[in-house]
Amino acid sequence: MTAETAHCQSKAAMLMTPVNRPFDATLEIPGSKSYTIRALLLAALTASQTGETITLKNPLLSDDTEAAMACLKTLGLALNITYSDSETAPRCATAISVSGNVFSPANANRTLHMNTRLSAATLRFFLALATVIPGQKILQGLPGLNKRPVKDLVEALTALGAEITYLEKPGYPPVQITSSALSADKMTVSGRISSQYTSALLMIAPLINPLESPNTPLTIQLSEPPVSQPYLRMTTTVMASFGVPVAASDHALTRFEIARPSNYNLGPTNNTFTIEPDASSMAYPLAIAALTRSKISIPNLNPQSAQADMAIIAILENQMGATVTWTSDTQNSAQQTLTLTGHGVSPVDLDMRDCPDQAQTIAVLAAFASGTSQLHGLQSLRVKETDRLAALEAELSKLGVAVCIRENTLVIDGGLLEKKLPKNVSIATYGDHRMAMAFAIAGAVIPGLIIEDPDVVNKTYPTYWQALQSLGIHVQAIPEPTSVGSVL
Predict the structure, then answer these.
(1) Would residue 357 show up in a list of annotated catalytic residues for this protein?
(2) Cα 223 to Cα 202: distance, rounded to the nearest angstrom
(3) What is the 3-state secondary structure of 374-432?
(4) CA 364 – CA 367 distance, rounded (Å)
């Protein structure tokens, strides 16, 4: 069931029972969604250019990554999944192999319908890819995704010769693409709405034909500094692993240069790419440990990871008062175990522009901190799965927390632990996986918290509720909130 289908049809909610004592636990985190989607696209291009089968280890299987996989299958790629034999995590995969050719002449006379479900990254990355492969391509998502803007990306692509038509509302999907080649030596894109536009252009850069000499590099210029800069570093890191290095001209990441000719390949790695654990998913159990004064260890991490949400570690340690240690893996020096010990949480004043996906996490923690917290740089939250600023204001208010929105800043008057905690509050999730996972942090402390539409976590962390259960937080599926009175 997709996240949006669950939101519309689910008759269940999740009743949470707080931890009865601090825990000491080790938790393995599934592979990164952001890495998995990027790696799937680059694996497809690598397989197309080399004729080899590409293997992705430790991928994430979730609604979003399965949307990307479905798009690749539509383009004629073959994907083979090796599943984990864990009975507690049946949707986990140990590897995905990718083979085939997106440039197949068989696609030229076909109309390729790609449904990107609720995955904005899949929509934007495959929109760019669709402009340089054969056939007539139609990209669309479920209704929630069709509200996510693509105008800046479409304008950047059409300036290079792409033929793109909006099928409904201008600036939004669904779109139809009839071009199969682009030519440019320089291009410009806006970075003000989403870093995904720039990532999309970066990944197809080796496929864009030079206007002058075949050796003319391609330059991508951003018209203003980008939001979510770490996601651009992630994209360039993955591209480099697949054999295409990207030069950034400044620390602000407003200009990139890609040498040509360039071809994707995995060089000496036996056509294998290993995906890191998902830092975004890791943030929620870390936050729970910090709030409940517990201890948690997360293995197999790369302390130097390019993932934006690795920033949660420094926020919890340096701003909110947790203790953090790293232990090297004796078998793999690139992997380490993070151990975080919580001591409660303190109020913060933070710019969240580079890790906006953790704004909800920090906002929920700030509700329990003694004092006022301010989260700045939240402009991108208005165009996510829902208007996350409005959603945070509405749901935190249910807990008795005073919240104020000042343009792109969220002001939270905390101190819940010093008050009488509310009971049996039902939290709406708005079809947004991060609303469900972030407010579940509060369920580790607040008695009888109810998370509506819990299946939305399938978008990025399908085993989330099992993970919380393993930490000692009891979760129970119950009828939807309109009928929970008899349950509590």
Answers:
(1) yes
(2) 15
(3) EEECCHHHHHCCCCHHHHHHHHHHHCCCEEEEECCEEEEECCHHHCCCCCCCEECCCCC
(4) 5
Q: What is the distance, to the nearest Å, from the Cα of residue 159 to the centroid of all Cα atoms in its chain?
A: 28
User: What token pair was written down for 2?
Assistant: 């997709």
- Of the candidates 278, 309, 357, 453, the residue annotated as catalytic is 357
Instruction: Name every residue whose Cβ is closer than 8 Å to that of residue 155 and which is 6 or more positions away in sequence.
Output: none
pTM above 0.70, yes or no: yes
Distance CA 221, CA 159 (A): 13
Which tokens in the block code for residue 193?
Answer: 């709405």
pLDDT digits (tens, 9 = 90+) for 440-472: 999 999 999 999 999 999 999 999 999 999 999
pLDDT at position 332 is 66
Residues 357-390: b if buried by 16+ CB within 10 A, e if exposed:
bbbbbbbbbbbbbeebbbbbbbbbbeebbbebbe
User: What is the torsional sign of CA 257, 263, 267, 272?
Assistant: positive
448 Ramachandran zone, left/alpha/beta (phi>0; psi -120 to 50): left
Distance CA 475, CA 267 (A): 46
- With a CB cutoff of 8 Å and minimum separation 6, the contacts of 332 are none
Cβ proximity of 441 and 284 under 8 Å: yes
